[in-house]
Specification:
mainly alpha
């Protein structure tokens, strides 16, 4: 779940002429990605709205364990790396994208703490969230990045 401002930044980046192929690929992959997720985004949104961090983490781990990757991930490569949201900037790939791909389900991602970066991400996310609520209202829900970007980049 990300504040709307971050999704808007990704959408603007995707709408650049030089990123047309990336945007077209995303639009093509999105429906199948969304179908694989089922109600996972809605459950995450509801947990975030309630402020239920424990349930949110539990539901989020369902996604990780099911190996449903972001719709911007193609073969382990992030297609929006240059415009990725702050939450994604906290994830560090130290060698290869092997742990990012839908490879051997026995592989689990390792969380590596880097306190200065983690602190910056936490503070930055709080600012993004404050801006999100200032623009959209205090009860405006955050939504999955791919859902927001798809809506922002698909003509009505």
């Amino acid at each position: 779940m990300v504040p709307v401002g971050e999704a808007e930044a990704v959408a603007r980046w995707l709408k650049r002429p030089e990123n047309a192929a990336i945007l077209a690929g995303f639009r093509e992959r999105y429906p199948a990605w969304r179908a694989r997720l089922g109600d996972l985004p809605e459950r995450l949104e509801a947990a975030a709205d309630r402020g239920d961090n424990e349930y949110y983490k539990q539901v989020f781990m369902t996604d990780v364990n099911a190996r449903v990757l972001c719709a911007f991930n193609v073969g382990g490569d992030c297609q929006i790396y240059q415009a990725r949201p702050i939450l994604c900037r906290k994830a560090h790939s130290l060698d290869t994208p092997d742990l990012c791909g839908p490879h051997d389900p026995a592989l689990r991602r390792q969380e590596i703490a880097f306190v200065p970066l983690d602190s910056l991400v936490k503070r930055s996310f709080s600012l993004f969230l404050a801006a999100h609520h200032a623009v959209l209202g205090a009860k405006a829900p955050q939504r999955a990045l791919c859902d927001q970007v798809y809506q922002l980049t698909t003509p009505a």
